[in-house]
Amino acid sequence: MPLHPVVDAVTRRVTARSAxxxxxxxxxxxxxxxxxxxxxPGRADLGCxxxxxxxxxxxxxxxxxxxxxxxxxxxxxxxxxxxSAHQPFETYPGRIKAAARAAGGVAQVAGGVPAMCDGIxxxxxxxxxxxxxxxxxxxxxxxxxSHDMFDAAVLLGVCDKIVPGLVMGALSFGxxxxxxxxxxxxxxxxxxxEKARVRQAFAAGEADRAELLEAESASYHGPGTCTFFxxxxxxxxxxxxxGLHLPGSSFVNPGTALRDALTDEVARRALDAAGxxxxxxxxxxxxxxxxxxxxxxxxxxxxxxxxxxxVAMAAAAGVQITWDDFSDLSTVVPLLARIYPNGxxxxxxxxxxxxxxxxxxxxxxxxxxxxxxxxxxxxxxSRYTREPFLxxxxxxxxxxxxxxxxxxxxxxxxxxxxxxxxLRVLHGNLGRSVVKTSAVEPDHRVVEAxxxxxxxxxxxxxAFAAGExxxxxxxxxxxxxxxxANGMPELHKLTPALGLLQDRGHQVAIVTDGRMxxxxxxxxxxxHVTPEAAQGGPLRNVRDGDLVRLDTLNxxxxxxxxxxxxxAREPARPAGPSGPTTxxxxxxxxxxxxxxxxxxxxxxxxLPH
Length: 609
Prior knowledge:
Layout: H1 5-17, H2 19-35, H3 48-55, H4 62-67, E1 72-77, H5 92-102, E2 106-112, H6 118-121, H7 130-144, E3 152-156, H8 162-170, E4 178-180, H9 192-203, H10 209-219, H11 231-241, H12 257-273, H13 281-284, H14 287-300, H15 306-316, H16 323-330, H17 347-353, H18 355-365, E5 386-391, E6 394-399, E7 423-428, E8 431-436, E9 446-454, H19 457-465, E10 474-478, H20 483-486, H21 495-503, E11 508-512, E12 525-530, E13 547-551, E14 556-559, H22 563-568, H23 590-595
Parallel strand pairs: 1-2, 1-3, 3-4, 9-10, 10-11, 11-12
Antiparallel strand pairs: 5-6, 7-8, 8-12, 9-13, 13-14
Helix pairs in contact: 5-12, 7-8, 8-15, 9-10, 9-21, 11-14, 14-16
GO biological process, one term: D-gluconate metabolic process
GO molecular function: 2 iron, 2 sulfur cluster binding; 4 iron, 4 sulfur cluster binding; metal ion binding; phosphogluconate dehydratase activity
EC number: 4.2.1.12
């Protein structure tokens, strides 16, 4: 199937826009490769004292590292046992070392990176560090790989900011092959529909805290990624479709023989890829791979956080994408998956229905994705229509299913859930924003209602608890939640209250310069409004009762107030940070708040914006 003309046009536009920055990036990684030893392993030209430090504690691998040309893998790990998704990584370094040793190579843990959980910090002060942790992870990854000891790298990370940070940091070493080794999702727990019901019942005062905790614990119950389709599982989808995972490895559950076999294989592939320029990370992550990532995200209704993270990851490889690229592709990429919060199924159901293999096959067969890309598995995205399985103790791949095994979860391009990808970029006199419409019912895709303005999410919840939001249509304007204001925390805990108001028969929407990620669902949410209020954006002049129109059909976000009157208003507060800037480590990130770029440029500190 020829490439769809819109996919082709967007790819050409991205390539032209990126010509200068991509060329500079490729020259930089070529220079890094040329600066290494002419032959032998990456550590071959280290001085004796340098090498002695590097191998002092290497035990059985010490002789191999000092006296042989064996290749060495640098492992960068985000392991901790507080995050269910990262707990399985505790055993990965040992497995990777053993597999590398058996293949004649070596692996060392080059460094660790922080990994915080938005699910734990929701509504807490620590959430204000969450987005910035991505850039800390990028910096930490660069530090880990800076020792000139490695011929390849394996990255261990799954969740929200961790994978984008690992990728951003590793792309500075894009002359090396880099594979990501996933941990996989936890097994299915309490059905998502029941979880959502209990959350709304608690918000309405119809369930107590014990009932809520019981439901949440039945949902998040063991090792592995949370099973809803938020940023963590969107990360896994992106890494596979962009060629940085082994085929079919994203959604294999932890603690299984297949998961262990795939981890061992990552070590072998990293060693084999060393020195192969076509498998260098900087070659794999190119313009076509990035467009493939956007397409897959749209086709599955993935996390809105990737309108920032994917922009930042691409920029780290010299590829410049914009929200308009997402929006234009969304008009031609159909929605092929229904995974909570866009449906009731979880990622295990998606995987069982045909998963990544069927999704990629459908996209390729209908000209919606580029096949002519490089991957860690070899040339061509079509390699990713295969699924791994164990033939006895041997890991092999076979072609995945050609038809969905559950059309309530995964469908074909010929029979999609929706003809578009369910992501819109909104423009208007309140700025630019993104909205995910894949879970929004048609009756709620245009909302025109009076604004109720809040400068803090807790104030909205207090107003809801006091009954002040009952009995009326409204657009909740939650401002001073952007990167410069307070680090752009997720506003996930607002979802049950807003959803309950909508269920009571009212037109409800939220407009914010903050983010909601996988939490954005049935209530229309104009997110990441830029310029943000803390930078003097129009949101800071909105007042209670102003009529706001959020129109996802026409792509507009408008304040229906006379322009002269609006321009004459004095802001309720000055630009700059909002709320406390100290406590829980916030004071350490003052430089980040001052330097961070806008959401539509990736909200990054470590890259140009």
